[in-house]
């Protein structure tokens, strides 16, 4: 293989890792929205923990839990099921005993919120990254989904004339035509009304999950084989709303749970 081929291969790998899992854009936007909504004291604590762990910013921390999973690091093998929860087909909603008897996103988030108070700065910094990430995942509809097609990973839809998995569409492709995360975060915050902020902040974790599940259930009800531009526009609106909801709610959790 020539140097040029090596370079192209490397470039290809870099580009494909950028579009991996919510994809980076989604997670980073959630994290940036949250960061801007933190009180000064919490923001300083977050900065200190990010620096401790060597994260460049909160966006970097937000994608770290997917990175350690993709790298299949043995010490994080147990965190695989933390990113989602599966419900039985046709179920009315989440049942902690039935759906989270083994670790799921709900128990993982509770555990990581508790770990924010750990005496070890390392454990605290990792808990911070997981909390930032998991609140994002919980708002991605297909992370509250069904086991039989692995949260839409095994379900193909046509988008932009390509067959893609429904899960991947919702993780990444739905946000593809939107600006980069810093600009997107600013736009979403700008468009936010006081009423939306109040009503979204009054919801608890169970409601966040129920909202995701409602979108998932409606996706499977309409069961689209092709996501045309009109459908894409509709899903993009939903995705933007999920991201800003996640960002606001994440800030409120961190303001509450991150000790001085
Ligand atoms: Zn994830």
Structure description:
- Keywords: Disulfide bond, Endonuclease, Glycoprotein, Hydrolase, Metal-binding, Nuclease.
- Pfam families: S1-P1_nuclease.
- InterPro entries: PLipase_C/P1_nuclease_dom_sf, S1/P1nuclease.
- With 260 residues, the protein is mainly alpha-helical.
- It has a single domain, classed as P1 Nuclease (Orthogonal Bundle).
- It has twelve helices and five strands.
- The strands form two sheets. A three-stranded mixed sheet has the order 4-3-5.
- About 6% of the residues have low confidence.
- Bound molecules: zinc ion.
- Zinc ion binds next to helix 4 and helix 7.
Which features characterize this protein?
binds zinc ion; globular; 12 helices; mainly alpha; hydrolase; P1 Nuclease; two-stranded parallel sheet; 3-stranded mixed β-sheet; metal-binding; 260 residues; 5 strands
Number of helices in the DSSP assignment = 12
**Mean of pLDDT:** 92
Instruction: Specify the CATH architecture.
Output: Orthogonal Bundle
CATH topology: P1 Nuclease
Order of helices and strands: HHHHEHHHEEEHHHHEH
What portion of the residues fall into strands of 2 or more residues? 5-15%
Provide the domain count. 1
Based on secondary structure, the structural category is mainly alpha
Query: C-alpha Rg, in Å?
Result: 18 Å
Supply the CATH superfamily name: P1 Nuclease
Bound molecules: zinc ion
Span from first to last CA? 54 Å
State the low-pLDDT regions, or none: 7-21
